[in-house]
Structure formats: structure tokens, C-alpha cells
Amino acid sequence: MNYGSVPRLSGVTIRHSCVAFLILIFGLIWILSGVSKTRADRPRSAPPGHLHGEKSVLFIRARFPDDASGFLPSDSTLNNIASIARSDFRAYSYNQFSLTWNTGPTVTLPQPTSFYGGLSARTTTVLSDARASAISAGYDPGQFDITIVYIPQFYGIFTNYISSDSSVCWLEPADILSNPYGVEGFIDSFYLQMANRANGWQTTDGTVFGNCQGCGAPAASGIADPFDVYGTEQTHSNYNIFHKTEMGWIPFANVPQITTSGSYRVHAQDAETAIDGSRIYGLRMRGYQGRDYWIEYRQGVGLLINWGGTLLLDMTPGSAAGFADAPLTVGGTFTDPDGNSITVNGRGGVVPDYVDLTVSIVGSSTPTPTPTSTPTPTPSPFPSPSPVSGLPVGARVSVDVDGVFVRQGPSIVYPVVGTQGTTSRGRVDQACVADPFSPRTFCPVIFDAGVSGSVTIEHLVLLATPTPTPTPTPTPTPTPMPSVLLATLTGEPEGSLLFINIGTQAAPSFVAVMTPENFGLDKRTRLVIFAQGVVGLAANTDPTNDILVGGELVPNLAESVTVEARTQDGRVYNLPVEFAGGQSLIANLDNINVQLTPELSGAGVVRLTLIVNGQRSNSPSLVIQ
Fold first, then answer.
1. Region class of 460: left (phi > 0), else alpha (psi between -120 and 50), else beta
2. Cross-strand bridge partners of residue 264
3. Which burial class, exposed, middle or buried, applies to 52 when counting CB atoms under 10 A from its CB (0-12, 13-18, 19+)?
4. What are phi and psi of 106, to 5 degrees?
5. Among residues 242, 329, 563, 593, which one has the fewest Cβ atoms lying within 10 Å of its Cβ?
6. CB within 8 A of 455, min separation 6: which ones?
7. Which of 69-78, 171-180, 309-318, 614-623 has the weakest average pLDDT?
């Protein structure tokens, strides 16, 4: 869809939205603390209550007094749009997310378009005036989860969909978005706040990745994946397993990380109305340049392989169909430059279909299969969790204030779903165990009422302990120096770097060395990257570059921090660091502001490493066009 001068609808590319920027910042707590307050597997920015349940939508149709006959959708159009969106979201989420709606009032705004066009906060003001007019007409937006305000068109005036005072109320031009995507696309962008858009990896030499410098890059549109609503913006196209696990609609236990070569059966993720806990709906495996392949099957379509979760790999590169024929079909084999391969051996089942795969992972061994009468390929088992010291068995416990804590680890697969409140009381009934794939510790708890199961230990509040058996006092262990860790989108150390382009206040899937949207004459791209351990290791040896924020002097540790950029062909550049230090919004979250250099133009995949006081961080990747 061509939006003309209007910025493309995207939860990570909307400009000039302080709310979206701050929500993204707060969503980073999980990455650096190692624990998410919403889910243990992925960073989230949307409040947990947004992701599940039936949500109410209020439509407000607003005209301007100088365009009293401007087009607005009818009640029947709105009912049809919302009905399709409800049906689609139920299908996408396995009936975990749905919509109700009220077609709402048609109001006349108090000011003409010329008045709003003269304001810098024009979107905020129009939305505020529309909500006030709706309240006067007997419709209170505060009683709804989501409010959509339709105006006839954007008149060449409005360039933003959301305001600075609300993330659940947005402005839409009726001449463009009086359709189901006007609901679905805004909900996934602003209400569910999905992460990166679903794009594709495009090449110019007829190979999947591109065998020459500059032959491969993310598609320029940024939304090239036709198999994801958050891609080419087509309703009914569903979401990929990266986005569905991000939303919590598919448990990570049903999309396991595999590390062993072998045979695997993957069921279609888009054919059922509820998740079957015994089925595998996708696989994750370490792929080219250390970025995971997210592997899924679509009913009657084929196998989709997303590099890093949101870059669709085209199995027929260079074809006239573009990404429409990207799936790997029965009999096909995909082999990456490292020698890892995936072969689709056959297809079976009815609803859902499934495919049987042979996966070869370089450096792993192929286990000898145990013959059975009816062999069914299944993922390799996870490592067994190991006991750790924690809350003693029999301890009486409550839970912390957020009330969302019962979960599954990526390798400790307990069939537990639910929440408890701060008034819940329970008892630890088994020894706490360590998750072999993460730093989390789980304690099995039997609650007096409600859901019971394994709970991450940081969410437990000790009320009383059983009489302990005396044990020798352990020798104190010195507190270790903090490690340096760059944040990634997936939480995996070598995954995709989590960053924000300062000039656009956006977190895109790729960047260029120049940002035309920068204010002033300096168009060089500057990124904020996020890390743990900088403040604890870096020394403030040059107080002259410290900055004043809100009357308080904030130490700038840039002189003690190095950011190294390494290209695919081995070139290494040190990026200018303009700021490094903590900030007041979130504890343990350090910001590093870096500038991209001209030498990195067109470099493709680049890995950044943070060096502080001789300690090197992990090296996540970003794509530079």
C-alpha cells in the first residue's frame, strides 16, 4: 500500500513518537536483567495484559468544519472491517486474542484543518478533540481498550498516526485505511507492539545469501515478507513463529532450539484453532553468521526459513514471483555457506499438515536412531536441569507485585500456564533447579488455591521456612566484577543487536550510515545501543564531557569505552562514542551513543563489540546498507 507522504505503518518505524520511544526503552529491562516481567523467553514492550483476551475497540469518525462532506466509513463498513479483524486475530492467536467493537459516533471537530496544520502537536490535538467530542456524544474512550479515530484524509498535514499522550488511540485516514488492515495493522504495531517488521533478504546474484560484497541485503521496502501481516500488510497472511512466540501465542516449548543433526517433524502453525502441546510448530537452529534460522511450515504452502526471525530467505532467489515463492517445498534442500542444511523429505497429515525434515548442523553428531514400529521424528531432548541451592523444600512463599510469573523455560518444559496474585500462598515442594540454557532458576510450588507449578525464583517472596538442619557456614565468595553484555533482540548473545536510530526514534531491521531525518546539517547516523556492566567497569577520567540532565550532572564515560565494528570481510573500525553511561529511567541499563562511519556504507552484516576496561562483550550483529 502506498501511503504517499505518510510514514509507513510500523511499530518500529513511526517517527516523532515519544510514547513509542519510551515504551521500547522500558521493554529492554528483561534483556539486561536476564528476567522478563512478562515472559522469560523474549523482550516485550507491550503490557502483558495486551497480549491475550478479548479487547474492546471504539471507532470515532471525525470531520473538520471546513470539509463537512469528507468521506468517512459507514456503520456497515466498520462492522465488516472489525468482523474480519476479529476472525483473523482469533485464527492468528489460536483463540487467545479477540475483539469486540462499537461503531461509535460521528463528530465534528471544533477547528478547521488550517488550525491543526499550524500546530506541531497536531495529531495529539486532533485525537484529544475527537475523544472530547465523543464523550459529549455519550461515548467514553476510557471504557475501551483501543480507540481508532477516522478522519476523511490526512490533507497533506498529518504525518503521524499516534500522539504523545496515548499508545491505544490512533488517527487513520479513511480514504486509505477503511479496510481490515486499518484495524489489524494498527493493533500489531501499537497495541501488541510487535518487534521488527517481517522483511526478506534480497540478493542480486541468484543465490540465497549473495556470494559477493553487496550482493545481499534486507529488501529496501523493509516489509517484503508476504507470509506475515507485519510484512507486506496483507490481512489473512498470518504471523510468523517469531512474532507468535513474541506474543506468547505459541509456547517456546513448541518451537525448540535444536543443536543436533537428525530428523524432525514440524506441523503447520496456521491450521489449528488451539495449540496442541505435543506438537512441534517450528524449530530454531544456529545459522549463517551466528543468526538463528526460525523454521516453520504453512499448511499447503511449504517450509519458511526466517533468518534472525524476521528476514525471510528466498529459496528461489531472482524469480519473477519475488518472495511469493520463497518456501522450500518437498524434495528441496537448503544449504547455507557454513554447510548447515535442511531437506524437506515429505508431507503428511490432513489438518494440520506436517513435513518431515532432515537437518544437518555443522559440528554436531547425528544420533543413532532407536528403531520403533512407527517412528515419528521428534526434536532432540533438552539437557536435564540440575539441582541448585534455593528456597528450601517446604518453605512457605508468596509472589511479587506484578502477578505474572508462572512460565516455562526453553529447556525446562513444565506444562504450567497461569498467574497468581500477591495474596497467593504456597509451599515449595521440590528442590529448585537451574535451567541449562539460561541463568534462570525454577522452584516447583504448590499453591493453596489456583495454578501451581514451576516459578522463576526471583518472583518468590519467602514467608517462612521449615526448621533447617544445621550446616557449616560457607566461605564467603567474593562478588565478581560485572560482565559487559550488549543487548540483543532475541536475548541470544550473538543475535541481532538491539538499537535505536536517534534521528528517527526507531528500531529498524537495518540502517544506513546517513539519516536524512536528522535535525540540522549533520546527517550522520547515530545509534543508541544498550548494555550491562559499563558503569561498573568504566572510569570517568574526563569530567569535562559529563552532561547536565534536569539539573543533575550525569557522568559521561565515553572516554573509557570502545565500540568495535567488524565487517564480514574482516575489516575492523572503532566507532566514535559520544556518550556512555547510565540513565535514570531504568536501573542496570547503560546507554552507549555511537556514530556510524562512512567506511561502513553497504557493509551488510556487521558485528559490534563493546570493550570496557579490557573486557570484551558479546558481538551481536546489525545490517548496514
1. beta
2. 357
3. middle
4. -110, 125
5. 329
6. 399, 405, 406, 407, 442, 443, 444, 445
7. 614-623
Range from 134-143, 230-239, 253-262, 548-557 carrying the lowest mean pLDDT = 548-557
Q: Can you read off the three cell numbers belonging to residue 613? A: 576496561
φ and ψ at residue 116, rounded to 5 degrees: -65, -35
CB atoms within 10 A of CB 171: 24
Task: List the one residue out of 529, 496, 508 whose CA is nearest residue 7.
Answer: 508
Q: Which three cell numbers stand for residue 67?
A: 470539509
- CB of 377 closer than 8 Å to CB of 370: no
Query: Residues 6 or more apart from 345 whose CB is under 8 A from it?
Result: 263, 330, 355, 356, 357, 358
Please give the pLDDT value at position 445.
77
Handedness of CA 35, 39, 43, 46 (dihedral sign): negative
| 32-42 pLDDT, tens digit each | 333 222 222 33
pTM confidence score: 0.56
| pLDDT for 613 beyond 70 | yes
Q: Which residues contact 178 (CB under 8 A, 6 or more apart)?
A: 73, 77, 81, 150
Beta strand 526-532 with 499-501 is antiparallel
| Rounded distance between C-alpha atoms, residue 357 and residue 612, angstroms | 44
